[in-house]
Amino acid sequence: MTIPVAGYVRVSRVGARDQSDGFISPDVQEKAIREYCARHGLEVVMQPHELNVSGGTMNRPVFNEVLDQIREGQLGGIIVYKLDRFARTLLGALTTLEELGRHNAAFASATEEQLDYVTPAGRAFVNMLFVFAQFVRETLTESWHETQRHAIEKGIHISPNGFLGYSKGANRRLVPNEDAPIVMELFDRRGDGETWSALTRWLNQAAPKPDGTLWTDTTVKNLCAKRVYRGEASRYVRQDKANRGAVINPDAHDALVTEEQWRAAQMTPRLYDGGKIDKPLPLLSGLIRCAGCRYSMSIGNGSKGERLYRCRRRHVTGVCPAPAQIIAEHIEQYVEELALAEIPETVRPITSSTERERIEAALNQAHADLEDFRKDHEARRKLGADWHSWLDTYLDAVSELEAELAQIDQGTNPAQLGLTRRAYLDGSVEERRDWLGGFTDCIMVRPSKGRGRNVDPVGRRARVLWRGEGPADLPRRATRNRLVSYVFEDEVEPGMAST
After folding, report:
1. Which of 449, 457, 464, 444 is nearest to 495 (CA)?
2. Which domain holds residue 31?
3. What is the pTM of this model?
4. What is the pLDDT of residue 496?
5. Mean pLDDT, residues 299-303 taken together
6. How far is the CA of 296 from the CAs of 65, 290, 333, in angstroms?
7. How many domains does the chain have?
8. Reduced to 3 states, what is the DSSP secondary structure of residue 308?
9. What is the rounded CA–CA span in Å between residue 394 and residue 206?
């Protein structure tokens, strides 16, 4: 009984090459193999096509299965379209051919019938062909690395995938687009300690994927890990014999975040007792703002390990002229003392029960307005470069209403249940933060004029702006609001004497 031979088809990389002249399709290879076997009276069993697998390695799933069947006597050899479909590495090819010989297995190239695999002279010639195949593979690999290196040095990002917040310009370099502010806010939120789950929910609303799929915790985490947002174009490769390593252009295009912001997004926030990422946000997160620029302050550690609220200094619209920082424990105690003075001993409603319905209706309308504006191609054409500024206005409206609705829905809502001093003191950090947000617009902090022992008291540096007292145009992170300072009045509120 004649043992059938295996018809083996391999393609290193398919991609967009199926339209190029040098691409030999799997169907063409299979047809040539079948015709060869028919001419020589061989029974052939075509194997699944080995696609996107390099000939530089002999460890290939389909190829391994063929060798196993030859060792077990189920197949009598291997027929390939051309010699380099079998291997592009000399050592691997010779070792495998030697093993085929030990099993009396046949080997043939369907398009190179003149090759002799039996006589010493024929084997020597075949060996030279394998040497040439390996040479071609290494030359092409080196050429591809050089092409990538030159592209990166020119600031061209070679990834076939796009990046949220960037588009490719006429020179093929990345340029920030209308989603850039969303990316910048994503990094700021992460730096403030928001969990990946919270960021995923926010990003699915702020920047839905064009293909209709949803952002996940993993994809958002991978997004924040990309150095492209630091302005880098790069290709990271494993070190090899040619001593090739990472190719990096640190100034390939405009960065959306600073190195500090990027690093902060990679770390697990250490809040309060150094807990994990699921610990609550700082008490005044989202409420405390720098008077110099009116942007939200972030939490961090001082030189002695103390927790500090501080201004980020650099914003989309410029640098804060008077960045403030203040010890978290002192400002939190100061704000809570003022808040407790406003909270009654017994239950009383703080806001109307219809407040949520009003905000929800306004939010639905804001979403509809935003969607209509995004789809209005005629407006985009007429507005030109000003289109992004108009888009920021719509995004701001949605973001502010979402924040108001979140304050109502999170925790025990004072708008629905009322609040007493005892309930406030018994609440968790997260609950107290939500309650404070229910009856304050923000807390403004300015820098101290003195230093060391002469530092200004908290009451001279901070202003608690109760509901309705805050500016109507407070900037949202990553938007292009004009940078404006908050001016303190002459009188000061009573407060603690130390910072």
Report:
1. 457
2. 5-151
3. 0.36
4. 37
5. 81
6. 61, 6, 19
7. 1
8. strand
9. 11
